[in-house]
Amino acid sequence: MNNWDNLEFSQILRHVGKSLQDPFTMIAIEIKKIYNWNKNFGCHKPDEISKITRITKMVNIIASQLITLLPGSQDLAITQYIIGLLLERAANDLEGNPASPKQEFSLIEQVTQQARFSIMKINYRE
Question: Is residue 24 situated within a structural domain?
Fold first, then answer.
């Protein structure tokens, strides 16, 4: 709970990026931390967090896909899929960590997919 006092700017960027990409997972983890704190259980166990992550990962995927089907949700999709990845990449750059090829590929894939959806929505006159 008190780790927020000692976070560096890059760690804050990374946390915001992860929260944008996996909102349900990050909310569930924070709720678990608060619950343990309030009940005086101490710190959470890694297996509890992995169980929460495993369950909410599917919820994130399903909810994100459903939300992107709604009209006018392109801005939300760009925020979630592109800006979240860019914030994590910026955090890595600030810390001097090299970007993983998997992250780079994912970013390029998301930009390409969002561009394709934007082009499909534009009519021929535009």
Answer: yes
C-alpha–C-alpha distance, residues 92 and 86, integer Å: 10
Q: Identify whether 126 is part of a domain.
A: no
Per-residue pLDDT tens digits of the chain, which is 126 residues long: 456 667 888 898 998 999 998 999 999 998 988 888 888 887 778 888 899 999 999 998 898 888 878 887 778 888 888 898 899 899 989 999 888 888 888 888 888 887 887 777 666 665
* Residue 2, domain member (yes or no): no
> Domain for residue 44, yes or no?
yes
